[in-house]
Design goal:
This is CAAX prenyl protease 2/Lysostaphin resistance protein A-like domain-containing protein. It comes from Tahibacter soli. This protein is 46% helix and 14% strand. By secondary structure, the chain is an alpha+beta fold. It has three domains: 135 residues, Jelly Rolls (Sandwich); 76 residues, no CATH class; 226 residues, no CATH class. A hairpin with a 6-residue loop joins strand 7 and strand 8.
Length: 505
């Protein structure tokens, strides 16, 4: 069998490398879209299941600070939480309880407030709302002991007591009270419920890319939109946001098979809910994971390739699973925090790879040339994508210092931990850089634009690391590039720097 000359093999290797980069970029975009489709379908299915059962996605049961807006009362009254809810001791002063929710509540659909509260005739319980977060506040006094409240029937006023129109949506909802000294106000639960016992849904309406040109939603049916999945993900998300301004109660799915996706998600959710007490295997899995990390750290395999593979997997498999699985949300629970802590502690405890030169913070001048190229590339992309009317959104000094520390930790994990362990496995240098960059990009799932940006930057930074083993130029390029892109690009190109479930919030 004929063998290619050495030069030919090298050319073939670079062609394969270039094709792998193109294929990986396409797969990253497809992965982001798949996560987005699944998120939309689950969200729509969950809402439909709740409404069909006479329930609602807007319910509150204050039992701790995180159940309130800002984690506290707005006012100086003393309060406490118990098994019955929130109890506020009256001191003759007015306070407000903020009920948290995302987006806006469409009062054409969810127009009644069910309030489980105990007040006194002199408590002067009032609803305080805004139609937009930047809009004026509106007030409506409640009758003592009112439980099911039709917001359209309330006498709404502004802060000066003048009559105003009934709000059509809510971007803020607070319960205000002023119980006399010695009395107490208690809030056990609250929820926004549909105006009618049976909720009707509009047919799925396809929405083409570009400017929105859809019919106004019907007042007696929940609108449903099928977003086109042939456009960039960030553009589809921006389109969804614009539709929500028009119809806050709208349901969304993506693709021509939108209805089928939602039906499948609803079936899966209904099947899961049918199991009243599902077996929670997360804590046993965490215990096994920690035990495996301890064993691997104390007794690493003698075989270099096996050791490299297992140490890389031990350090990054758990964070990878948390991000891909959507466990990183707005308020991570204790299990998620412990998994991340265990993985980080293991990664930081690993000793350097013996057959590699020691890594340095600074390197030769050449170590900064390639990372500098990513900064120049970021400036070019920002100049291309920036729209002057959007303005710049530069971080303040505290945020910049925090991000510097976060970027240093990320690059340590990708370079010192992952890339060095891949060298033990025996991969060629270019494929070490490729694998490290791909993992780095996947850790930003499902943020499509950020995945592609980190993959492009990671290819350069990982190659620089393999060649020069200098960390600080890579960290500096990471921080500078990210800051430029996030400050300059509009949301239609780069929506945010969030990952996992936080990206969809």
């Amino acid at each position: 069998m004929m063998r290619l000359p050495e030069r030919g093999r090298d050319v073939a290797g670079w062609i394969a490398y270039a094709l792998a980069i193109v294929a990986a970029a396409a797969c990253l975009d497809a992965l982001a879209w798949q996560a987005w489709r699944a998120h939309l379908a689950r969200d729509a299915a969950r809402t439909i299941l709740l409404l069909d059962r006479g329930d609602t996605p807007y319910r509150w049961a204050p039992r701790r600070e995180r159940d309130l807006v800002a984690g506290r009362l707005f006012g100086s009254s003393a309060y406490e939480f118990d098994e019955r809810g929130l109890r506020v001791e009256g001191n003759g002063e007015t306070f407000q309880v903020g009920l948290p929710f995302a987006g806006a509540i469409d009062l054409a659909v969810y127009g009644r407030l069910e309030l489980d509260a105990v007040d006194t005739p002199d408590a002067q319980t009032t609803l305080v709302v805004r139609e937009a977060l930047s809009g004026p506040m509106r007030f409506a006094r409640l009758a003592t002991g009112a439980r099911m409240i039709d917001l359209a029937s309330l006498p709404w006023t502004d802060e000066f007591g003048s009559a105003v129109s009934t709000p059509k949506r809510l971007a803020m909802l607070r319960v205000q009270a002023r119980p006399p000294r010695g009395d107490a106000f208690r809030l056990t639960a609250a929820r926004m419920v549909p105006m009618h016992e049976r909720v009707y849904y509009a047919p799925w309406m396809p929405v083409a890319p570009g400017p929105i040109n859809v019919a106004e939603p019907s007042a007696d049916a929940v609108p449903r939109y099928a977003l086109d999945d042939g456009q960039p993900l960030e553009a589809a998300m921006a389109q969804r946001d614009r539709l929500l301004l028009q119809a806050p109660a709208a349901l969304f799915a993506a693709g021509v098979d939108a209805a089928e996706r939602v039906d499948a998600a609803a079936s899966a959710l209904a099947l899961r809910d049918a199991d009243a007490r599902p077996l929670d295997l997360r804590w046993p899995a965490l215990a096994l994971y920690v035990a495996a990390l301890v064993a691997l750290r104390l007794r690493p395999p003698r075989h270099a390739r096996l050791r490299g593979a297992l140490e890389a997997a031990g350090a990054l498999a758990a964070p990878f699973g948390l991000v891909i699985g959507g466990f990183v949300g707005d308020n991570p629970d204790a299990w998620t925090a412990l998994v991340a802590t265990a993985a980080l502690a293991f990664a930081l405890s690993l000793r350097p790879v013996d057959n590699l030169p020691p890594w340095r913070w600074f390197g030769p001048p050449a170590a900064g040339f390639a990372p500098l190229a990513t900064v120049v590339l970021a400036i070019g992309v920002a100049a291309w994508g920036h729209r002057a009317e959007d303005g710049f959104h530069w971080p303040d000094e505290i945020m910049l210092v925090r991000y510097l520390a976060w970027a240093a930790l990320q690059q340590y994990l990708i370079c010192v931990v992952l890339a060095d362990r891949l060298s033990l496995v025996g991969l060629p240098q270019r494929w070490i850089a490729f694998a490290a960059a791909l993992v780095f990009a996947l850790l930003h799932t499902p943020n499509a634009a950020l995945m592609l940006a980190t993959f492009a930057g990671g290819l350069i930074w990982s190659a620089t690391w393999v060649r020069h083993r200098a960390l600080l130029p890579i960290v500096a390029a990471h921080v500078a590039s990210a800051t430029i892109l996030l400050a300059c690009l509009p949301p239609e190109i780069l929506r945010s720097a969030e990952v996992s479930a936080r990206f969809f919030l």
